[in-house]
Amino acid sequence: MRKLVGLIAVGAMTLALLPGAHAGPGPHGVTSDNVEHVGFLPFNAGTATGASFFSKGKDDYMVVTSWRDFAIYNINDPVKPVEESRVPFGFKFENEDVSTNGRIMLFSESLPGNILHVWDIEDVTNPVQISQVKGAGDHTTSCILDCKWAYGDSGHITDLRNPAKPVLMKEKWGDGMPPHGGNHDVTEVAPGLVLTSTNPMLFLDARKDPVHPKFLAMSEQMPAFVHSNLWPRNAKDNFALSTGETWTPPKQCGESSAGLTSWSTKGWQKTKSLKKVDTWTASKGTQIDGNPIVSGPFGCSSHWFDTHPKWHNGGLVAAGWYNSGTRFLQVDGKGKISEAGYFLPNGGGTSAAYWVDSKIVYAVDYQRGIDILRYNGK
What we know:
Strand order of the largest sheet: 16-17-18-19-23-22-21-20
């Protein structure tokens, strides 16, 4: 049996899907029985793109980015985040995968300036920009080796050993690698070990020489764009995961939309390859059944996702799924994927979902802000 969180007015919901519209606190959406909506954090509705998490002593924090500003929250009580600071900067597009080690934060501005911004966030109440790197403003930029280095999605390598005086290297991490394309993100899956969101995905070793990483393995070719990836447990797990993104032309829900894919990593040292196991995609529905009536500008496309803290050779995934909201997916011991729960917001466009602890998930939404969810299932 499914439950309805508040009342849904379909006309108002459709209006909220229009560009610039947003929902506020109140009736929030539809959940499965094992998902509970427990809080809402408005954040520059219409632009909240992604988040990153870090700790200082006994305190836990989250930094949230948008196209207009970023903010740092204390999340010691994950159901009631407390804003520590907010930094407006006009329009900068876009670091949806903001990267930090808790001391410095990287904001990668691809438009209009093509600049990598380096912020000192040691004092969470007073972030200070300490440097800029022209020409390094990729769509996403990720910290490597405790933010001593940074890899941009298009291949840029930045030396951050002195973050106040960063150096953009002439070399790119894709130099000399097997043919690949569709660059979107880089994930440090273990210290100095990198899995690229390219097609095919590349597994690289930057531990000894970050400027000239070593090729280790690659995935099979995908028929669609690869958006993001994770390889849990410091790349020791039996599975890696990736999502795609379907953005233009607008796609209806179904097999043509991007989904979550599981990859077998067994024996990669010998085969030098990751093997595709399964892909799960979302569907259209009646809204009441937890699936969207209209596909919206991005259809039922997957986006940023996170594995449960207790993941071990399979487990639970929380994923932002644009107009399909937050989907909770179970990956079994063979890599097969099934749906375990959902939250479909009213008038939402969910960018990302993050496990804050073993129960609480933050769903970052372009149109709403941050929905705080509690997963009560197994």
